[in-house]
Amino acid sequence: MAINKQQVRTALTHVLHPEMNKDLVTLDMVEDLVVQDSFITFTIDLPEKNTELEHRLKEKCKEAIHKYVDQDAVLDINTAVNISKFRNNEDKGEFPGQGHRQQKNKQEEDEEILSGVKNIIAVASGKGGVGKSTVAVNLACGLARTGAKVGLLDTDIYGPSIPTMLDTHERPNITTDKKLIPMQKYGIRFLSMGLLVDPDQAMIWRGPMVTSAVKQFMQEVEWGELDYLVLDLPPGTGDIQLTLVQTVPLTGAVIVSTPQDVALDDARKGVAMFKKVNVPVLGMVENMAYFIPDDMPDKKYYIFGKHGARNLADKIGTNFLGEIPLEQKVRESGDEGKPIVLGDMDTKSAQAFVELSNNVIQQLAIRNQQEAPTEKIDIKIKP
Ligand SMILES: Nc1ncnc2c1ncn2[C@@H]1O[C@H](COP(=O)(O)OP(=O)(O)O)[C@@H](O)[C@H]1O
Ligand SMILES: [Mg+2]
């Protein structure tokens, strides 16, 4: 029989905090619980570092789950020091009771975690293969060209391509307090699921595991001070995307599409998804807008149709951020791990990516002046 979250929570009510004399669930110490078949992972939040206690609680949790839920369950129990979560209850000499934690505290917590990041931009597409990662990586490097501090997070767990596009395949290091240190290349900081998880393994992950992993990426990484954090989202507008965009306080979204009708239909869904959850859409990018042959750089062949994304942007009242030509050099630079925007400025594509970056900066400035920061909605993921 499949294990469910409720069973795990119930088992954890048998684990008492030795000093508080209450159980971990009542003390609201269990976070990010994910169950996948017989694999169970969660984090025990603690108000302060206490290695001995962490060890003891982990052991007790294991015992309780093996006894009350499934003796063959495979466990990955993490601990985290979460000062802000418990701070409000210090004077009262107790941890908060379950369910009493206010939404506000949770938001403050997240603000604190990403407090050094000024703008979070999601690069999304309805369809896969339209050049989302190519746009994300060139946008990140294009923003960095202006002297800004930029981070890039590849959340596409099923098809991470940023390691190839930045020619980096080593595992990231970890700080003494167990935070991941982003990799650095071409002046940007970046991380990819592909550097941490074996893609074959990741293929079997379901939505909640992906969301939980991405959440950890946001929270347990030393991003430091950033002007822009660019997120390469997984393609599509399903549950994973919807949960992701609501878990992170996004400043705005950039939607990538090719000019083809099949891609445009999905791009429209993408725009609708962001609007539904009140994330401003900064605009649309038309990738592979026209083909430029290497030997005839002045030619333009509209092989996927002309101005499809530009017209759609007009029609649905969204900004048009620019068109990127289909050029062999874009593909080659992606495969070689050096984004075209950092290469030959004589190419149409490099110029197009610079223009795109400038338009995104401009739209962000307008958005930040006109609207309040996006509020994060913390959805509890159901089993
Ligand atoms: N404008 C372009 N010109 C040439 N090749 C491109 C262009 N955009 C993307 N590609 C290539 O198409 C493939 C898919 O692009 P990618 O960015 O990985 O798409 P996605 O992230 O949407 O799946 C890659 O091999 C990439 O190099
Ligand atoms: Mg991709």
From TrEMBL:
Matching SUPFAM superfamilies, A to Z?
A: Fe-S cluster assembly (FSCA) domain-like, P-loop containing nucleoside triphosphate hydrolases
Please give the superkingdom of this protein's source. Bacteria
Return the CDD domains for the record: Mrp_NBP35
Segments for region (Disordered): 88-109
> Which GO molecular function annotations are given, in alphabetical order?
ATP binding
Q: Where does ATP bind?
A: 126-133
Q: Which UniProt keywords apply?
A: ATP-binding, Hydrolase, Iron, Iron-sulfur, Metal-binding, Nucleotide-binding
Query: Any idea where the MIP18 family-like domain is?
Result: 5-66
User: What interactions and quaternary structure are annotated?
Assistant: Homodimer.
Q: What does this protein do?
A: Binds and transfers iron-sulfur (Fe-S) clusters to target apoproteins. Can hydrolyze ATP.
Q: Which family does it belong to?
A: In the N-terminal section; belongs to the MIP18 family.
**Protein name in the entry:** Iron-sulfur cluster carrier protein
What organism, scientifically named, is this protein from?
A: Fodinibius salicampi
